[in-house]
Design goal:
The protein is mostly helical. The chain contains 14 helices and no strands.
Amino acid sequence: MENKKAKKESKLKTYLHRYFIDAMSAMAQGLFASLLIGTIISTLGTQLNIPLLTDIGGYAKSAAGPAMAVAIGYALQSPPLVLFSLVAVGGASNTLGGAGGPLAVFFLAIIAAELGKLVSKKTKIDILVTPLVTILSGCLLAYFCAPYIGAAASSVGQLIMWATEQQPLLMGIVVSVVVGMVLTLPISSAAICAALGLTGLAGGAAVAGCCAQMIGFAVISFRENRWGGLFAQGIGTSMLQVPNIIKNPRIWIAPTLASAITGPLATCVFKLQMNGEAIASGMGTCGLVGQIGVYTGWVNDIASGVKVGITAMDWIGLILISFILPAVFSLLFDFILRKMHWVKDGDMKLNV
C-alpha cells in the first residue's frame, strides 16, 4: 500500500516538474528568442533610424506564438511531426488569447503535444494523421478556450497592476519578493510575467525583485565564486544557488530582504515602470534584459506622448534599483547573518 502511494507521489512530482518547470522554462526561451529579441532589434532600428532592423524585429515578434509552442513541444520531447505541427497551435493560441496569449499557448500546446504523441507513428499514414490530430486538437481548443484563458490571465495581471497603483508600498514589497523568489526557483519568472502581462509599476517592482536576487547572490557569494560566479549569477541566473539553498535555506534571506526594500523604493520613490514587453519584467539583470525592457518602455512612452523625455532621475533610479542597492543591502544583511553564524564561508560555493 505504501509502495503504491510512493509511486503515485513520484509520478505526480514527475508530471509537475515536466509541465510546470520544464515546459514553462522552455516557453520563456521561446518568448526570449522571438518577442524579446524582436523588441530589442526593432528598438535599435527605431533609435538608429535603420528600417531594416525595425522590420526584422517585427518579424521576430510576430513569431512569438509559434516559438513558444515549439519550445514547449521540444521540452516535452515531441516527435518531429508533432513539434512542427505545434507552429499552427502556437499561432492560433497566442492570437486568440489576446493579452494573455502566452498562458493560452502554455496550456494548449501541452495538450496538443500530448495528443499528437498518442497517435505518432501508430499508423502507416503517420505523415497525415499526426499533424492532423495535433493541429486540429490544438487549434479547436484555441478557438473555444484561448479567449477565456487569455482573459483570465489578463484579469489577474490587471488586478496586480491596479493593486500596485493603489498600494505601491505594500504591493511593491509583495511583487518584488514573490517574483524575485520565483526567478531563483527552477520556475520561469519571465514566463509568468509574460503570461500575466505584468507591466507598469508592478513590472518595475518585479524587475527590482529579480535584480535583488541575481545581484544579491552574485556579490554575497563573491568570496567563494570570484569573478566567474559574479558574472554567472549577476547576468546569468541566481538559479545556480538552488542546490545551496536546499542545504542551507538561510543564505536566501539576504537577497530576499534586499528585494523587500528595493521593490517599494522602485514603486514609491523612483516610480520605476516596465512598459516594455512583459517578459522583461521577470528577467532582472539576465543579459540586461530587464534594463533594456525598461528603456524600451521609455522609448514607447515618448513615442506615444505619455512621456516627454528620458530624465537623469530615470537613469539614476534604474541603476540604483538594478545594481547598486541590491548589492549594498544584500551585503549588509549577509554580514549580519554571518555574524549570527547562520551563514558561513562555503555555503554559496557553486559547482560550475
